[in-house]
Design goal:
4 domains, four-stranded antiparallel sheet, 12 strands
Length: 281
């Protein structure tokens, strides 16, 4: 066999079910003859085999179709797709998730290779629930699997990092944010820029939160801005500075140059008239 000096010789190497034999020079592109485990010899593009796009002479696809036809009429069952996904990512090397499952030793027990047994053991899936392994380092078997909500499954991921906020230990940052009733992004930014103790000390400034304006009413940031005649950013600035009650409705911002800066920077292309502390468009 003669190969180009620039071409890698893969003779004898096995890729899934195909073992390289020799280069097929009758084809225009780089194709090789491969011997399949079933005994067939096929000529296939080398790149397709190496990259896992073709794993056999075609016998694999035929077996898969035959396997689907032998599921005792359960291929349309609501759990069949869940079962099939579980088996695929644990047993098929070219599956996109194989590296995170079968590639690191996660297996499916022999009993669950039969979809009927899987359905019997797991029972009907609750609404919005997904298949979850209790111990992420163990495989799929009846004693290690459950139906879990997306929230519970998210808290059980192996790449989660515990956080300690205000002396309380949480499995995830999302769990801490839910506990302190603040957006996860807000808590993350505060933990990154401030101490863990100060992260929850200040109130969360949200446009949807209603604030006491001192006259018996509770208004959102946008509602206060509309009533005062300033931007929502100006009201946000007041809230961050700790202004409460009637101070939120005050029109006088002469003592707060940063507020005026906020207003001016947002509309630099428009003229302003300053009259008794008010900014009039």
């Amino acid at each position: 066999m003669i190969c180009s000096p620039k071409e890698k010789n893969i003779a004898g190497q096995k890729f899934n079910r195909l073992t390289a034999i020799k280069r097929d020079f009758s084809k225009k592109f780089y194709q090789w003859f491969f011997n399949c485990e079933c005994g067939n010899v096929v000529s296939v593009a080398k790149a397709s085999v190496i990259n896992g796009y073709q794993v056999s002479c075609g016998c694999y696809n035929r077996e898969q179709k035959q396997r689907q036809n032998l599921t005792h009429g359960l291929s349309k069952h609501t759990l069949y797709r869940t079962w099939n996904g579980m088996v695929q990512r644990c047993t098929i090397e070219h599956n996109k998730d194989y590296a995170s499952y079968g590639g690191r030793g996660i297996t499916v027990c022999d009993r669950w290779l039969d979809v009927e047994n899987f359905i019997i053991d797991m029972g009907e899936k609750p609404q919005r629930a997904t298949l979850d392994r209790i111990d992420n380092n163990k495989g799929y078997h009846p004693n290690n699997c459950r139906w879990a909500t997306p929230l519970a499954q998210g808290n059980n991921k192996r790449n989660n990092r515990e956080v300690v906020v205000d002396g309380i230990r949480f499995k995830t940052l999302a769990a801490a944010a839910r506990y302190f009733k603040m957006p996860e992004s807000t808590l993350r930014n505060r933990l990154f820029n401030e101490s863990a103790k100060n992260a929850t000390a200040r109130p969360v400034v949200s446009k949807n939160i209603k604030h006491d304006v001192g006259d018996g009413r509770f208004l959102t940031r946008n509602e206060i801005a509309a009533e005062v005649g300033v931007t929502a950013g100006a009201i946000k600035h007041r809230l961050k500075k700790g202004y409460l009650g009637s101070d939120l409705l005050s029109c006088n911002i002469s003592g707060h140059p940063s507020l005026a800066t906020t207003l001016l920077s947002s509309r630099t292309m428009h003229p302003y008239i300053f009259d008794q502390g008010l900014i009039v468009l």
